[in-house]
Write a structure and sequence with these properties.
There is one protein chain. This protein is an alpha+beta fold and 299 residues long. The protein has 11 helices and 9 strands. Helix 4 packs antiparallel against helix 11 (229-253). The longest helix has 29 residues, at 71-99.
Length: 299
């Protein structure tokens, strides 16, 4: 893809996108695989949304096979999804500082994102939370008893960082009124995730169509009406606060029990699954052949 800018100073006059079709053959790669191997492919469709893609895919299999995921696995899936959201949004804020030439803010944001990834590695064995999900639950149980304490140490650092960004005029001057996306344009063009919510559309699959343990946990969906780059950064900041609150709540209320349910692969069936990833809604549709292998996977 290529985007050409015509600008005078910092004012962009025209911005014609040249969005060419990029084909990686990922959907074709699913065909003929078992659902377990299909999960590994789903994890690698998007490097920063591994949990979200794997979770949406696993839910298609569970829907088609009428599998009931154990309660502990539901909570663990929610925790993993919010850990993924946490490092994604912090990296976004750091990269946003790069675009506004706020070098210290960029370094701080990306350092906080790195600390979150290191926590992922310590508690799950994978910085990007891969190799954990499978149809029916999780591949193995996780010992997260010390995670709350580690997040409590990180929480004030994140709060101070976000407060500093909101009090840096040179940063805000480049965000406020920039990249305006109206409510109607966001709706017409199918905007999703934080971009949609920053343009006044309050929609989040975690609340509107709950999955995992989201229907057991209280959460708020932030929304802004301004539709500019500043509103989009504010949405992510609020989601960071909400993710931390969700993590503390889920870790405290998570039950004991199994993390994997027995599952029988359907023959000739189909299923639909979804997940609210850090960047927006993700949907999977799966069709099985008569042997229980994946005949078609649409992302």
């Amino acid at each position: 893809a290529q985007i050409v800018f015509y600008n005078v100073g910092e004012a962009i006059l025209h911005c014609p996108p040249r969005l060419f079709f990029k084909h990686r053959g990922m959907e074709k790669r699913f065909e003929g695989l078992s659902p377990v191997l299909g999960t590994l492919i789903a994890e690698r469709i998007s490097g920063v949304d591994s949990v979200a893609h794997a979770l949406a895919f696993c839910q298609t299999i569970e829907t088609a096979s009428q599998c009931e995921v154990p309660e502990r696995a539901r909570y663990l899936r929610t925790i993993l999804a919010e850990l993924e959201r946490l490092y994604n949004h912090l990296h976004y804020l750091g990269h946003l500082c790069h675009t506004t030439t706020l070098k210290v803010g960029e370094a701080q944001g990306k350092l906080l994102a790195e600390q979150c990834k290191q926590l992922n590695g310590v508690f799950t064995g994978s910085r990007f939370l891969r190799g954990l999900l499978k149809p029916g639950g999780l591949r193995r149980d996780l010992d997260l008893r010390a995670l709350s304490a580690r997040l409590r140490i990180l929480e004030p650092q994140v709060a101070d960082y976000m407060a500093a960004l909101e009090n840096t005029n040179s940063h805000l001057d480049r965000l406020i009124t920039t990249g305006y996306l109206s409510h109607q344009a966001a709706f017409d063009q199918g905007a999703t995730g934080p971009i949609k919510r920053a343009s006044g559309i309050q929609h989040d699959l975690r609340c509107d169509h709950p999955y995992a343990a989201y229907d057991r946990l209280q959460m708020e969906i932030p929304v802004r009406a301004e539709g500019d780059a500043h509103a989009r950064s504010q949405i992510r900041m609020e989601e960071i606060r909400n993710s931390l609150a969700l993590l503390f709540n889920a870790l405290q209320s998570m039950p004991e029990g199994p993390v994997d349910a027995e599952i029988r692969w359907p023959s000739g069936g189909e299923g639909l699954g979804w997940c609210e990833g850090p960047r927006g809604s993700i949907y999977y549709c799966v069709h099985f052949d008569t042997t229980g292998k994946l005949a078609r996977v649409k992302v």
